[in-house]
User: Fold this.
Amino acid sequence: MALLQGMTLAVLATGALSRVIPATTTSAFINDAVPEINGSTRPGLLHLSADKPKILDRRIEQILAQIAAKPTVRGPAPFFNSPTTDEPTCFQHWNDCARTQFWSHHLLVEAHNATGSVFSSLEKEVDNNSPQDVKIEVTETHAVIDGTTTGWKIGGKATAGFGKSGVASGGIEVSTEYSSLHNQQDTWTESIKYSYSCPPWSVCRIETLTFNVNIMGTCEETGYLQCAPLIPSLWHSDYTWSACDIPSALSCNQYTAFGNKYCPKPKRPCSVSTPIFNEDGKEPFAITAFIAYDSDDLRSPQTIRVLNDMGEI
Assistant:
């Protein structure tokens, strides 16, 4: 789809946002097929496709290219713990420990590559079936984030230059330090006014986009077991051992098999998805777009602006 002559683009930066729960994820731009990440579907995922305006595609593609650059893992590194398995203890130690719990700790030690996902929130739509301009206006925008990284302690933050038009520098860093920035699926609301003229015989939309980084990397796995004494009051951290530090006095087939599985610590492929926040870590990285389409050809936008509060370029 060729760009229409006279199409304009403006880029601005996001303002201060405040958290509002629960989230809403509706968009006229969502395709029917929603891909899976780590086995779960992501509602609200936006796909680059022929029905998206090319000029906005290019802006999104620039951001996705920055996301795809190898992300930096900052300490403390992201991690997750597997669900606990509870078993009767081997008979040799049953008098000391009635039951034993087993689990594994997965630490992201390296990020090999990354991809980006785009989430869309439709702010407003106007169908102007008249020969005059019609105003389309919003007084707040909604940045929807998908933080359903079940079990993971992780967050993503932009570095200097990320998301700026025409700037190749900038990327993403991830750490447990940023894990408190989000809680599953949230909506962050910004009080800001956008007002535009919707041309005659046009469909006009204002939409806010947010981004996730999907990381493929290597996790180091450490196995742990915890012996549950017959007297619950005696159950404390002294009864927890890593797979490589199980005392020889506790040797039995059950514990030995667990130790052989996790010692030495195996390294296996792992993946995780997390929302991207601005450099200051205070709000999601988001862009808002105004798009005007000809009513007879919704695949050929007349006007596109990518907005926020830093002024148009």
Observations:
- The helical segments are 54-68, 253-262.
